[in-house]
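Tokenised fold entry reproduced for everyone:
>
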Amino acid sequence: MRRVRGGTVGVAAAACAVCCAAPVLTLLGIAATGAAATAFAAAFAGLVFALVVAVATVAAVVARRRRARRNACSDATPPGPVHVELRTRPQEM
């Protein structure tokens, strides 16, 4: 009787392994693939964010330099000597 019981348990374990192996391995594969996909998505999102920040920084620097050049080289005063008048401070009342 024991031999039959042991054989029955062994057969049941083998049947369980055969029946459940594919779904269990599939779930493990999905978990590993999901982890890899998550890591890839995080890395991709980080690279995209870094690229956006770099482009925004370059655009801000270029705009600031253009504005500084425009203000420095304005045509409000013609080139040449400039009359400067020195006075004393106005008297305070």
Remarks:
- Helices lie at 2-72.
- The chain has one helix and no strands.
